[in-house]
Amino acid sequence: MPAVARPSPATAPRADNRLPLILDAAAGFFADKGYGYTSMRDIAGAAGMLPGSLYYHFASKEELLVAVYAEGVRRIKAAVAPALARDGDPWERLEQVCAAHLAALLEDSDYGQVVVRVRPDDAPVVAAQLVALRDEYERTFSQAVAGLPLPPRTDRRALRLMLLGALNWSQTWYRTGKESPQSLARRFVRLLRDPLES
Amino acid sequence: MPAVARPSPATAPRADNRLPLILDAAAGFFADKGYGYTSMRDIAGAAGMLPGSLYYHFASKEELLVAVYAEGVRRIKAAVAPALARDGDPWERLEQVCAAHLAALLEDSDYGQVVVRVRPDDAPVVAAQLVALRDEYERTFSQAVAGLPLPPRTDRRALRLMLLGALNWSQTWYRTGKESPQSLARRFVRLLRDPLES
Amino acid sequence: MPAVARPSPATAPRADNRLPLILDAAAGFFADKGYGYTSMRDIAGAAGMLPGSLYYHFASKEELLVAVYAEGVRRIKAAVAPALARDGDPWERLEQVCAAHLAALLEDSDYGQVVVRVRPDDAPVVAAQLVALRDEYERTFSQAVAGLPLPPRTDRRALRLMLLGALNWSQTWYRTGKESPQSLARRFVRLLRDPLES
Amino acid sequence: MPAVARPSPATAPRADNRLPLILDAAAGFFADKGYGYTSMRDIAGAAGMLPGSLYYHFASKEELLVAVYAEGVRRIKAAVAPALARDGDPWERLEQVCAAHLAALLEDSDYGQVVVRVRPDDAPVVAAQLVALRDEYERTFSQAVAGLPLPPRTDRRALRLMLLGALNWSQTWYRTGKESPQSLARRFVRLLRDPLES
DNA sequence: CATGAATGAGTATTCATTCAT
DNA sequence: GATGAATGAATACTCATTCAT
Questions:
Q1: Are the Cβ atoms of A194 and B195 closer than 8 angstroms?
Q2: Which residue in B33, B159, B198 is closest to A191 by CB distance?
Q3: So what's the pLDDT on residue A152?
Q4: What pLDDT score was predicted for residue B17?
Q5: C45-72 confidence digits (pLDDT tens)
Q6: Parts of chain A with a pLDDT under 70
Q7: Distance in angstroms (rounded) separating the CA atoms of residues B87 and B69
Q8: How far apart are CA A142 and CA A140, in angstroms?
Q9: Of chain C residues 84-123, which have a CB less than 8 A from chain D?
Q10: Most exposed residue of A43, B26, C27, C119, measured as fewest CB within 10 angstroms of its CB?
Q11: D touches C (3+ CB pairs < 8 Å)?
Q12: Distance (Å, rounded) from C-alpha A196 to C-alpha A192?
């Protein structure tokens, strides 16, 4: 326990500068193969270290997942925030929010994918934390729906669940390149906005 | 213990057929914990046999999954078929199809859940078979959308993807008891049919 | 226990007419992959029956091996016998014996190969029987060496071990087609007969 | 707890190196029971560790075999090298080479035995490596034959195959104690060198 | 003669984790 | 901060064998 050498335990309590490397590696695998199909060895290998070394940074695989998941939520929220802040037509705003959500989910980074792909009960011990993080984001998303001028008695909850479900499920069939998140978002929102009954 | 029903030990030599038992057990676990989180021990235990005994019936865990998955698709198709066959208002028909789909997925049996929950690439060796099965069903579902009278240039593919996505994703948040598949289907279809833009 | 139907329990105590089929299948695998690497399933499959059915014919895998091994020894002895019976030049006779031995071992059938390939202690329970069978043949082979007119004090035992070793080991490197057992036998015997020291 | 002997925890960080222990254990079993009849449990047990722990050192049973086999070839080559390097009578040299070969094979260590006992295709994945190793040694052995002054048109290849076969097959019947490798080698070489035809 | 169904013990291998250094 | 070495429990799967039918 060196009491002097370290410049200042308060300002730099723990450097841990390879931490982002680990998070990136983990996010990559979790997004790609899922939590349960990823081993600590996979992650360590990709981060250029040995499995045991991961435990200096995270107490368990589950805690590592929480960290990745939290970062994923943070990024989706950050991606959606500008769209949400915009003034103007609420339908247009919803479309932009959806586009940002989709982009974060499908293309921008592994972190976003993790949030949609990993089911909280894959990691029972921390399931509650994951659910809380997910809920946190869904409240954000709700605001975009809440701002919509809708006929009275419209079921806004169903609207939100439907839209979010459609968006999230797209991870299942979406293939990069054929269509942009932006245009997909437009299609989906149009289907809701425009009357379909001829 | 029906004392009469059994035809005769000669005609029915002894097909205890614990095979459906195995399938049920597997379906239960796959639906509940996912494919990768289920062990052959789990399944064997629930079926009242030893792990090795499973291999008399299925050559591998993956083939067992295919059997469960196929049965799942069969059941969803069977559930949806009557609704699809109905004459009358196409929107009404779509609603009934969605209700049947949701019921099969959320309540009726584990088999339906497996089809939605298990990702084909969890079992790489048979992934193609699973995809084929899933596609087979989706073609069935498409018919309900195809029958809709829609304004020209409506994007029917997007409509199908959106609806199916919303339906399937419901597995994530749906909790039995609060709301019936029937009523949920009605809500979703209404949101599409009725104009939302005031 | 039908007392009448069977023609005559004494003359045909047990038909067992698929037995040769089983032996052939077993010989094939034992020769090819070795005893330990062959499963009863392999054999049953090749014989067109189920694994359990083999136990009607043989009490255990080990006993099946004994049967195959015995048949192998029988065949090698039968192949060598005519050459051994010949009159005339003893060196010529030895060459013919070696040629017959090699042919039985390398080309004629799987049974011969089994005798050379399978080590008695691969099947501990019956090891002694296998050794006895092998010894039985070696005594036969010895006669060909015993008949040789050799300088006094020649070590006939070493000669037999050397020749038999060279012959048996050929299974390791011999590839059908390049050279006949006949010509290989001639080469080996010549090396012994002719003086090499110039 | 030796307080002095250990040079310094810094220079010799802690290379317990139980690896040779594992190799020895594996060599012992492979030589004794054969590759396929040896389990990783056997080896681990003899090395004083748990089965899983072996995989820290070797990626698979097959790779472990390669390591043992390579060491075996190395040892036989090393044993034969001095004899091969000798000047003087080529027949005498051949005899010494054979004696060294036999000693390595029959008495000196399990490693040598493994090379002769284990058939490359017992471990299909690495079979090619094993064959390459074996060939490597056989080229060494060939030199001893190549140095022999022989009548023109003598078949040197057959001579090498015959001698090596006789030597290697001796593993089958040789029992320590009765006769030394040295004397056995002399017998074999004499049989070739001296004219047998009276 | 043969099968259908199962057993129980064994196989190689994987994995999250630990901990002294 | 990280490693080398190991643990212990789990995993999918295999195999010789059994036995009622």
A1: yes
A2: B159
A3: 87
A4: 81
A5: 999 999 999 999 999 999 999 999 999 9
A6: 1-15, 198
A7: 30
A8: 5
A9: 91, 119, 121-122
A10: C119
A11: yes
A12: 8
What is the residue extent of each domain of chain A?
Answer: 63-197
* Chain C span 51-110 residues with beta carbon within 7 Å of strand F: 51-52, 54-55, 59-62
- In angstroms, how far is F4 C1' from C37 CA? 36
Q: How confident is the model at residue C184 (pLDDT cuts 50, 70, 90)?
A: very high
* Shortest Cα–Cα distance, C18 to chain D (Å): 30
Question: Does nucleic acid strand F have an atom less than 7 angstroms from the CB of A134?
Answer: no
pLDDT at position D194: 84
CA–C1' distance C155–F13 (Å)?
A: 54
**Å between CA of B24 and C1' of E2:** 31
What distance in Å separates the CA atoms of residue C168 and residue C184, rounded to the nearest whole number?
12
Task: Please give the angle made by the CA atoms of B80, B86 and B92, to the nearest 5 degrees.
Answer: 85
Predicted local confidence at residue B16, as pLDDT: 59
With a 7 Å cutoff on the CB, does C7 touch strand E?
no
Q: Do residues A63 and A126 touch, judged by C-beta distance below 8 A?
A: yes
Neighbour-count burial of A164, counting CB atoms closer than 10 A to its CB (0-12 exposed, 13-18 middle, 19+ buried): buried
| Average pLDDT of the residues in D15-22 | 83
What's the confidence (pLDDT) of residue C152? 86
To the nearest whole angstrom, how far is the Cα of A34 from the nearest Cα of chain B? 9
Query: Angle at Cα C126 formed by Cα C123 and Cα C128, nearest 5°?
Result: 110
Query: Is A173 within 8 Å of chain B by CB?
Result: yes
Query: Tokens standing for D150?
Result: 């022989």
The pLDDT score that the predictor gives to residue B14 is 46
For residues D89-105, give the mean pLDDT.
95
- State the Cα angle at D179 between C116 and D73, rounded to 5°: 60
Can you give the distance from the CA of residue A60 to the C1' of nucleotide F6 in angstroms? 18
What is the mean pLDDT for each group of 10 consecutive residues in chain B (198 residues)? 38 63 97 97 96 96 98 96 93 96 92 97 97 95 93 92 97 92 96 79
Can you read off the two tokens belonging to residue C118? 């399978």
C-alpha–C-alpha distance, residues D16 and D14, integer Å:
6
Alpha-carbon distance C160 to nearest alpha carbon in chain D (angstroms): 10
CATH architecture of B63-197: Orthogonal Bundle (1.10)
Chains with 3 or more CB pairs closer than 8 angstroms to C?
D
Which three-class secondary structure string do you get for chain D? CCCCCCCCCCCCCCCCCCHHHHHHHHHHHHHHHCCCCCCHHHHHHHHCCCHHHHHHHCCCHHHHHHHHHHHHHHHHHHHHHHHHHCCCCHHHHHHHHHHHHHHHHHHHCHHHHHHHHCCHHHCHHHHHHHHHHHHHHHHHHHHHHHCCCCCCCCCHHHHHHHHHHHHHHHHHHCCCCCCCHHHHHHHHHHHHHCCCCC
Residue B15, SS3 per DSSP: coil
- Judge whether residue A110 contacts strand E, using its CB and a 7 Å cut-off: no
Q: In this complex, do C191 and D151 lie within 8 Å of one another by their Cβ atoms?
A: no
Whether C146 and chain D come into contact, CB under 8 Å, resolves to: no
Angle between helices B156-173 and B90-103 (to 10 degrees): 30
Judge whether residue A52 contacts strand F, using its CB and a 7 Å cut-off. yes
Q: Which residue has the higher pLDDT, B71 or D108?
A: B71
CA of A21 vs chain B CAs: smallest distance (Å): 26
From the CA of B54, how many Å to the C1' of E8? Answer: 14
Q: What is the pLDDT of residue D198?
A: 56
Band of pLDDT at residue C17, cut at 50, 70 and 90: confident
B61: nearest nucleotide, CA–C1' criterion: F12
B12 sits within 7 Å of strand E by its CB: no
Whether C10 has a pLDDT exceeding 90, the answer reads: no
Give residue-wise pLDDT tens across range C128-162: 999 999 999 999 999 999 989 988 888 999 999 99
Do A172 and B166 make contact, defined as CB atoms within 8 angstroms? no
